[in-house]
Structure prediction request, 403 residues.
Amino acid sequence: MIPLEEAQNYVLETVQRLDIERVSLLKARDRVTAESITSPESIPPFDNTAVDGYAVIAADMQGATINSPVSLTVLESIAAGTAPEQSIKTTECSKIMTGAPIPEGADAVVMVEWSELGESENCVNITKTVSAGDHIRKSGEDLLPDDLVIPEQTLLNPAHLGLLASVGIYEIETFRKPKVAVFSTGDELIEGSQSLEPGQIRDSNRFSLIALLERDGFQTVDFGLVADDESAIEETIQKATETCDAIITTGGVSMGDYDFVKIVLSRIGDMRWMQIAIKPAKPFAFGTVNDIPVFGLPGNPVSSMVSYELLTKPALKKMMGHVKVFPTFLTGETVGDFKRREDGKTHFVRAVASLEEIPPKVYSARRQGSHQLTGMAEANALVVLPDGEGVSEGSSLMFFFLD
Ligand code: AMP
Ligand code: MG
Prediction:
């Protein structure tokens, strides 16, 4: 058996980042930038008001209170999207709406809440003092021309996209997202609700794996169920290498007599067959066929999902340009015992983790068999249980969320 880190390093050293693709902003979320972007202009582009109110000269407002308001002449009303026509001199002001440019001469804005109608239509009484700069959003206070907006290899979030739109950039170079082929193998597998013949089970791995891939933002191509037959398996793999960036197979990679995936991949691919010191997901095959990475995941339903989380997902993330490819590990406190036997492996216990308390609490899911999807379905986290006899209630263990 080899340590998990050795298998992970081997996979990550083999896979390469995909090519660069120019995409429009609305297609760019959750992609990683392949260029750094500097701002062509200032944001805000001009000094403007953060509130509805009156653009004034702060010095005129000294001593203004509700009992002794300062009376000003109103020159005009400035709407957002229009340019002021008049400049402000002492004892004058202009009515101004949020986002409108500050008129020349004014150095502060009084909120409309601190004003009362004056004696005549073009008079207003201000009931509060202000300081120079109050409620003015200065040109360039968010970005100046040539400021770095987004560095290379940034995972784009919705705010990044808004930021790019705000400086007039609508297309961006990003790393392409991998398109991943998925197929299941095994003569025992069927799809459908017809009754099972002796020895048959229903294929579940393709459904959980395709869902995992889509959850993580990868494209998927479903190559279906492939029989335990050398030529069928070879044909499927060859076809998948022509159209996809990575291939995931499940089943047929361990020590059984009918593990034809292993036979075919050994012949047509450059593969490494591993026994990893973890439970579940000990058997794992990885290599390339026609330079396309192939992940041979174990057949047991829980194993295939855990293998995906620990080995496939980090690799696919590297391919689409991510810098951080591994999950974030947190420390949780066990509720109930986490018992096990010493077997030379690190166990990844299916668990429910809760952040409602500090420290976070972790509970073991009820069923821990590598064939028991009910335990995986109940879980929202995997807890790392080191080799040994396990731990009792109230112990600290590392875990990560399955998301
Ligand atoms: P294998 O790795 O092919 O020896 O399969 C290990 C176990 O996982 C066996 O019990 C298989 O029946 C089961 N298995 C393999 N592939 C699937 C699948 N796609 N869906 C559900 N169970 C599977
Ligand atoms: Mg099989």
Notes: The domain at 20-44+141-175 is CATH 3.90.105.10 (Molybdopterin biosynthesis moea protein, domain 2). The chain is about 20% helix and 30% strand.
